[in-house]
Specification:
It is globular, with a radius of gyration of 25 Å. The protein has helices spanning about 1-25, 50-60, 75-85, 95-105, 115-120, 175-190, 190-205, 215-220, 235-240, 280-290, 290-300, 330-345, and strands at about 40-45, 65-70, 90-95, 135-145, 170, 210, 230, 250, 265-270, 305. Helix 2 (about 50-60) links the parallel strand 1 (about 40-45) and strand 2. It is built from twelve helices and ten strands. Strands 1, 2, 3, 4, 5, 6, 7, 8, 9 and 10 form a ten-stranded mixed β-sheet that branches. It has two domains: about 40-135 and about 265-320, Periplasmic binding protein-like II (D-Maltodextrin-Binding Protein, domain 2, 3-Layer(aba) Sandwich), CATH 3.40.190.10; about 140-265 and about 335-345, Periplasmic binding protein-like II (D-Maltodextrin-Binding Protein, domain 2, 3-Layer(aba) Sandwich). The longest helix has 25 residues, at about 1-25. By secondary structure, it is α/β, with parallel strands linked by helices.
């Protein structure tokens, strides 16, 4: 009899549990998920192989699991706009300050007041309201084949438009955010007329040597298919880390008197305005701007740390040894659309 009563009780409890679950579903209340608070969803415009080791280190330290979605930066910004407050993303990480600023002006990102950020990252590398924060710096440089040319043959990016370099250079394609950001800085520094002449010469000299990936440009230069190319600096140093005998050299352009300075951009992070996991998201920001996180960007990715007390990889030129262009990173967003129009008018591929 006791056994029968026990079985009956279990059956009642099971039905009650089923009813409770059904009510929760109908009212939209989440069923119990003790791990929901220990997760973050990160939308990343950076290649997974570059950002995942850093995020894995964050998980190891905090126990907070990361759901990572990697895709093109423009696609992710458009996706977040379309998703609105329904977006599963808590954090946006990408490789271009202009795209971060576009996300800010679209109202997607949350302004932050964090002493850790203000102590670690100089103000020129973050939005005025800290809705996006730079994490690492990259410079648009000229990579050259040491068997085909010497660095004293050029001084400026503009020199690549000289007809003497026809069929001897490799460039990013017209859709490259790196190209768009670089051309935006040239426009802001030197004006549309100079920029248009530069683009026309670049188009003619590159011919068919137009690439979707910067790593392909470095490979073409290393193989001697072209004498030089334009890429972000870290692509060269990553290549040399695995192939140290490759005939590659790096030239930091526009350092002469009156030159505009090297073109700089940053990878950075922003927290989505709607996220319910703001504390976890802040912990990720704090981790990435701290010295340990900054050192990981320097060591793994060959990028320049933005924390003034963290040194870059010793293979890189000392940051103090060259000048950067003075165009504010926050202007890259407003410059982008007219820059893209100019690139299209010139007929870049």
């Amino acid at each position: 009899m006791n056994t029968r009563r026990s079985l009956c009780t279990i059956g009642v409890l099971a039905r009650l549990g089923l009813i409770t679950g059904l009510v929760s579903f109908l009212w939209g209340a989440p069923l119990t998920d003790v791990s929901a608070a220990d997760k973050l969803t990160v939308y990343s415009g950076r290649a997974e192989r570059l950002i995942k080791p850093v995020l894995d280190a964050f998980t190891a330290k905090t126990g907070i699991q990361i759901d990572l979605l990697s895709s093109g930066t423009t696609e992710l910004v458009n996706r977040m706009k379309a998703e609105g407050d329904r977006s599963p993303a808590d954090v946006f990480i990408t490789n271009d300050a202009g795209s971060l600023e576009i996300a800010r002006t679209a109202g997607l990102l949350r302004p932050l007041s964090m002493r850790e950020v203000e102590r670690a990252i100089p103000p020129q590398f973050r939005a005025a309201d800290n809705s996006w924060i730079g994490l690492s710096g990259r410079f648009w440089i000229i990579v050259y084949n040491t068997n085909l040319m010497k660095p004293d043959q050029i001084k400026s990016l503009l020199d690549l438009a000289d007809p003497s370099w026809k069929d001897k250079i490799a460039i990013p394609n017209a859709g490259s955010e790196y190209l768009q950001a670089g051309v935006s800085v040239i426009r802001a520094s030197l004006g549309d007329d100079v920029t248009k002449t530069f683009l026309e010469g670049l188009r003619d000299n590159a011919g068919t040597q137009v690439y979707q990936k910067s790593s392909q440009i470095v490979e073409a230069v290393a193989k001697g298919q072209v004498a030089m190319g334009i890429v972000n600096h870290y692509y060269v140093y990553r290549h040399l880390a695995t192939q140290p005998t490759a005939p590659l050299g790096v030239f930091m352009p526009d350092q002469q008197d009156g030159g505009m300075g090297a073109i700089m951009n940053v990878a950075g992070i922003g927290i989505l305005k709607h996220t319910p996991r703001i504390d976890n998201a802040k912990l990720l920001v704090e981790f990435l701007v701290a010295q340990a996180g900054q050192k990981m960007f320097a060591d793994l990715d060959k990028e320049y740390p933005l924390h003034p007390e963290v040194k870059g990889d010793p293979a890189l030129p000392e940051r103090k040894s060259f000048r950067a262009a003075l165009v504010p990173l926050s202007k890259l967003a407003e410059l982008r659309e007219p820059t893209m129009l100019l690139i299209e008018q010139v007929g870049m591929r």
